[in-house]
Design brief:
The protein has 5 helices and 30 strands. It has 410 residues and is mainly beta. Keywords: DNA-binding.
Length: 410
Amino acid sequence: MDQTTRRTFLAGAAGASLAGLAGCADDDVDGYEIWGADQGTNTIYIHEPDGDGGFDEVDEIDTGAEGGEVPHMVDYSSDYEYAAVACTAGARTLVYRTEDRELVANLETGAGSHFAGFSPDDEYIHVDAIGEEEIVRVDVDLENEEFEQVDSIDVRENDTIVDAGIEDGSPICHQYAQDGRSLHTMGPSYHDAALVIVDHDDFSVDRAYSGDDIPTNCGTVSHPTEEKFYLTAGLPSDPDADPDEDPDAAAGVGDFYVYDTAEDEVTTVESTRGVDAHGFWFTPDGEELWVLNRETNDGLVIDPETDEVIDEIDAFGPEQSDDPTESDAPDIMWASPDGEYMFVTTRGPNPLSGDPHAATGFNPGYAVFDIDSRERVDMVQPDSDNPDSDFHGIGVRPIGEYDGFTSPSY
């Protein structure tokens, strides 16, 4: 199996170029499967392309049977042989062997375990635990399938974080930069937003920025070849807020930030041209970065070479309206490794996370977008008539041989 994984790029991409990635995402993919997390029914649905433009369900995982209530996010080991699923209400992280869907670890990582991500070398899993106000470190031995919780960073007691003036908020999401650090957004509200940067080798806080400086509270993704990092900041609009007294609350916020990890400074702050900026994802060739707005059900396509907007997506979910209560709510996205599709989860009528004003949707499942045309070509909805269905996390796992880049989750 010749797998050029995402973390291979993070480990050695500093001297590479986007031109080196171009053409990698093509027909060199034997296949892939999509893991869609229905946090409302404690189910992970696994689909594969059927060869005719559709997607067949090939398996289901009942996370609730293992105490994994509200499976929120999915992340993979560098070889995609293991999947970590953070379960917010279950206060735990479940680790599955992906080939046979067998549970190999049930880790009590704490209340509000929101995102669990493998380190680039697969030696650790770091978990952003909202309810514990901690970044939790799990020691990993994949060869023997052994996992042990060994340390944590309490954001209320860490001197670097406290000295930065971060008094509220909890770790939300993170990903790994090329320089051996992980960048963690704080939240969940925009009012709790901040950024904490961790040296993931010695598990110490390298630096921290308060919300006054970098109010990021959601998405995190590293540029595939350059020493820069992307983050999102989102806030739903509040129809009861006074626009004169609190314009951000009244109108909502949708921004993305570009952080230079070599110089440790923000180089770009741009509007996402919508409200409640949330998930985003690179195309496998590294030439486009897609970003979505949850409340306004729309988004942008960004050129990561210049960080300029090159296109807009009018609607990720099929129900679109100026009234967010009448519109679909997209959340997280992940590209197919062959570069053909972008998969975007869409929320249900009774969302278990996020502000209901922004996160309530009509078509729980995930939208399938043709990357070249930017058009929605399918909706995959395994439990569409169930009012509890509420899709949030998603992951795409290459099967067999492939040669390309798949960007890290967030």
